[in-house]
Amino acid sequence: xxxxxxxxxxxxxxxxxxxxxxxxxxxxxxxxxxxxxxxxxxxxxxxxxxxxxxxxxxxxxxxxxxxxxxxxxxxxxxxxxxxxxxxxxxxxxxxxxxxxxxxxxxxxxxxxxxxxxxxxxxxxxxxxxxxxxxxxxxxxxxxxxxxxxxxxxxxxxxxxxxxxxxxxxxxxxxxxxxxxxxxxxxxxxxxxxxxxxxxxxxxxxxxxxxxxxxxxxxxxxxxxxxx
Length: 227
Ligand code: AP5
What we know:
The protein is an alpha/beta fold.
């Protein structure tokens, strides 16, 4: 039987193409507001690593840079929303990514009378995204994100956040796959900008600037949206 969705005080959505900074900003918002980041990309990568049925189905699709089926992603997100820690409020990073997923989220939230506080579009240029993605690496222990040029750890090879020394790079961060991921974004996810504008919850942030400046703009939006 499915577990009930936990009632949460805030639901924020970060929309944007690969490399827009959704993960970077979601982790900063977690620290600042005590919210919980729910990244369907991270959940799917964990399923792949664990070799679950969903992970086996998702692996090749992710490596090709296409979107995993709505059924799999919605089931994974639904399970995660049933866990107790989400009661602090959630930042959805990488979900929804299709209109079917957006409608499924509306249905899930309506089960507990909840609403989306804000859907924030991180606006960026495609050309810059390839450079951001190809320079990305993360801490294998805590998941903190870094970049070869834009965000290096203070001590080479050592995570600023947890002291971990196992840095890793993603299998789908290759130049040829990034093109497919951007294409999937424009065809299947960008229409959600209009979807949330129609609901009156859309906010936009220019995400081409400095990481801390973007974090400041997002913090203002989050404070207002949580009032
Ligand atoms: P997912 O893991 O969600 O990846 P993505 O959307 O492609 O986004 P990224 O994680 O690549 O980028 P980001 O926006 O988080 O950027 P980041 O902060 O890391 O999805 C992976 C795959 O899983 C998908 O392709 C699909 O197959 C599947 N999937 C996931 N969710 C799905 C769903 N709902 N439905 C179907 N399939 C799904 O930043 C990137 C780099 O840039 C970092 O190095 C960072 O340090 C740097 N950086 C960040 N901000 C700045 C800045 N302002 N200036 C300079 N550098 C910056």
